[in-house]
Amino acid sequence: MTDSWTDPATGTPTGVWPDAPAGAWPDAPTYPPTACPLPSSSSSPSPSPDASPSPTWSGSRRLPEGVIAVLAPLTACLTALVGLTAWTTAGAAGTPAHIEVGIGQVFMPYADKQRTAAFFRISNTGGSGDQLLSVTSPAAEGAMLSRHESSGGADSMRMVTSAEIPAGSVVRMTPSTLDVMMTVKGRWQVGDAVPFVLHFRHSGPVRTVAFVVRPGSGKGSHASQG
Length: 226
Prior knowledge:
Order of helices and strands: EEHEEEEEEEEEEEE
Largest sheet: 9 strands, mixed
Low-confidence stretches: 56-60, 84-93, 219-226
Helix content: 10-25%
Strand content: 25-35%
Structural class: mainly beta
Distance between the termini: 133 Å
Number of strands: 14
Mean pLDDT: 75
Shape: rod-shaped
């Protein structure tokens, strides 16, 4: 291949290639810009497909709407829970009193006297307190609650109109604490079962029996465990 070139207009050979006239060669094709340009080497790596987008903060530090939608009902629930806890702590949500009366004991009248005393064990397994208001029996009359107290070495006895039965407690009647004083009807024998009804302010009447025992036999002090 020769490096010479002959001008067709003059027929004169020459070793110089002329410049191509304008428009002789088409311009290089222009391609549209890349839809997804490649990141430069200094850009951060793309997050993995499984990564959850983090909430962004605007200049005013506002929570994203999605977070607000979740926090609103949660805040309402927490407010209600705090109120319920305070209500329960104050005792307003306590369960009703649940009274149980065990089998009691009653002293056998002695020295031809008709006065005697009965003893019972009362438990309250409920969440609210109750009060023992009175005790009745078809075999006795004039039954009254009596509380024994010691002060300055001297014992005293006084009649009371009621006895507290706190929630979750056990009240044991004994000759030295609380008992039921009454007058006997008819004649009793040791071992007889005497019917009684204990009347409570909230729980109403509770029926039980008390067995007749001799005074000083040692059983009277344990009658509250019946």
